[in-house]
Amino acid sequence: MQMIVTKDNLEDFYLKDPGYDPATSKYYEGIMTQGNGYMHVRGSYDEGLIAEKQDLEYDRKPANVTLEVQRFPLSKWGTFVPGVVGPHPFLMTEMINQPYFFDTVLTVDGERLDMAESRISDYERILNLSDGVLTRSFRWDCRNGAALRLTYKRFISMDRKHLALSQLMIKGLSGSARVQIDAGINAGVRTNGFDHFTSIRKNQRQTGCSLEVETNGGNKVLIVSEIEADADFSGKKDINDAIYSSGTVEINENTEFLMTRYIALCTDRDQEEDSLSFRARSVIEEARRAGAQTIYDDHKTAWEKRWSASDIRIKGDHRAQLAIRASIYHLMRAADREDPRVAIGAKGHAGEAYFGRYFWDTEINMLPFFLHTDPEAARNLLMFRYLTLDGARENAKSYGYPGARYAWESSVSGHEECACWQYADHEIHVTADIAYAMKNYISATGDEEFMENFGLEILIETSRYWVKRADKNRNGEYELLAVMGPDEYLPMTRNNYYTNRMVKFSLDLTCAELESLEEKEPLKYRVLKERLGLKDDEKKLFKEVADNMRLPKTDDGSDIVPQSDDFFDYADIDFDEVWKDRSKCFGTCISQEHNYRVKALKQADVLENMLLFGPEFTDEVKSKNYDYYEPITTHDSSLSAAVHGIIAARLGRMDEAEKFLDKVIDIDMDEAAGGAKEGIHIANCGGLWQLIVYGFAGLGPAMWNESADFKPMLPAGWEELEIPFFWKGRSLKVVISDNKAVLIER
Ligand code: BGC
Fold first, then answer.
1. Which residues pair with 149 in a beta bridge?
2. How far is the CA of 581 from the centre of ligand 1 (A)?
3. CATH class of 388-409+418-477+495-550
4. Domain pair 11-304 / 388-409+418-477+495-550, same fold
5. Mean pLDDT of 250-275
6. Strand locations in 8-117, DSSP E?
7. What pLDDT, on the 0 to 100 scale, is given for residue 9?
8. At the fourth CATH level, which superfamily is domain 11-304?
9. How far does residue 423's CA lie from ligand 1's centre (Å)?
10. Where are the domains of the chain?
11. Rounded percentage of the chain residues whose pLDDT exceeds 90
12. Contact 252, 131 (CB under 8 A)
């Protein structure tokens, strides 16, 4: 037996953790999250940290997640299977943190290995983004005088989605040690302070153990762990909510010991048939037959396939190179390509913040990446919205409207899960963002069938909601009152430009798609109309509201697009007086009451609209609006910097674009800031991709352009930029240097 031989050791694919540090340990757990779409595990140490109890219970009440101070300073385990959710007493439905299956405790003469307490040196930990393998290696000088070198490797198989594999190699350096190894599954975990497990069943097996939980969401999750090693692991330990297979190995100078664990996770939500135990056992048996190396090789091939469709190469900027690869890695890891019943949670299934829920982030920030690198995954993300249409219908009903209203925060059913009223009630633009995303998808892929079979139903139902949500004013215009736009620091404004424009787009699209279907496929059109009970009067109303949707404007010649009709009535604020410490979010330096009455944006709003509806504004107008809004934008949301960067790059304002590039990169890559502690800002990962592709490479979005045209403006120092992408069914690659783009068929 030997450790798996992993391939391509390219520094530009390595995320490195320089060594245990209480200030950054939780950050590395987040950024080193591994996964395969189906399941995800934070990059916690296999043995955990003794100081951080994982089953701490506390009351976590609804709050503004951006501003909240989270618990667990050092370490928080996280094992997530996105569809497995359950009710939290205060926070509604959340993704449940599952039992931690990499748990491996090592003890030598009563000393338990702990990165914080033990004598550790010569440490290296690397997440290889090219194959998702996490490797850790260090020297442990045990208290009994022996010195050991420990090397760990682990991954979640990309092609055998229920399988994870971990290896531990112990080498004797000097002295001798009896190392006790307890390798098992630990259900002593909580999600946002709450225990979702209603029962835990533990089982001992000849060479392993298993643990099955039932959740308060009504699901069963079974984890089976099997050990392969030249040692007896038939000893068992059943401690509280955990079960371990135990073995003891004698390590002397130059002895080598290898343990391989095959871990299978299955749930009753899976699409496969057969019992959980049969399936989990089959996964393990097949894996053992194949052997660790073959499993790795297959896994690597699956990753290679993904990278060949998505890898962006930047010559001349190592930091940006690593950051875009980390972003692409997390986007690919987070998307379940086979199961449209789940989408991508706002923290990329890498932490408990945002409760694993789906926001507009998916459609607006992440989708463009998938449109151009993995159209099937993009389709799945939209299918998720189709499959949750019933939930959206119920949301509309609960607010007293017909049709469908998508949740500001959606879980797997589509019901509104946001526990804070401001967002739940007023941040309605997500419903129209979904329509925009569908059109974007069809423009980029040409998959018209999606619209006919699924999209139109979404459009009709959401249009029915919009025409009731809009109020007709005395000038015959339709208004959207009491709305929160993307800028969440103004909770109830009149006619938020972004929202109104999106809704108009959505209604126009409904009318155009209905017309086109009627013309091209009259029979299909009639069937659809009948099935949804669509009346001609309704169609007329869709058009009337679209044609007369109010879009706020100024008539003072300034060309500033008002964020909302009442935007200029809000008070000015002296940022220097209120926001002294710029390393903190602005929102933490001001009361919410005060924040809600001043002109201080959380994130891009008018500028977000200018990005999505680019051709509707001249560069001059964009520039004026950028100059007006940027200084009053706090960028407290991670969705803001990329939008500003793209607009700045397109306007040729490269200093600013580069400043925003830094900001975008720092959001998750700056270990001191620790952004990834509670999970990955996955919308920002999509944002970085867009900043490079739309901003610096200057690709005209498929939404507005027939052919793939690039107008590059590369940051200083970028010698060459290479981007593979799909464009309306073609597989292409662009290579840019000296601000010249060469397009190559792939
Ligand atoms: C942002 C929203 C975003 C959400 C989830 C909030 O802080 O303001 O725009 O959808 O986070 O990422």
1. 139, 171
2. 22
3. mainly alpha
4. no
5. 96
6. 14-17, 34-35, 40-41, 79-80, 85-88, 92-95, 104-108, 111-112
7. 65
8. Glycoside hydrolase, family 65, N-terminal domain (2.70.98.40)
9. 10
10. 11-304, 388-409+418-477+495-550
11. 96
12. no
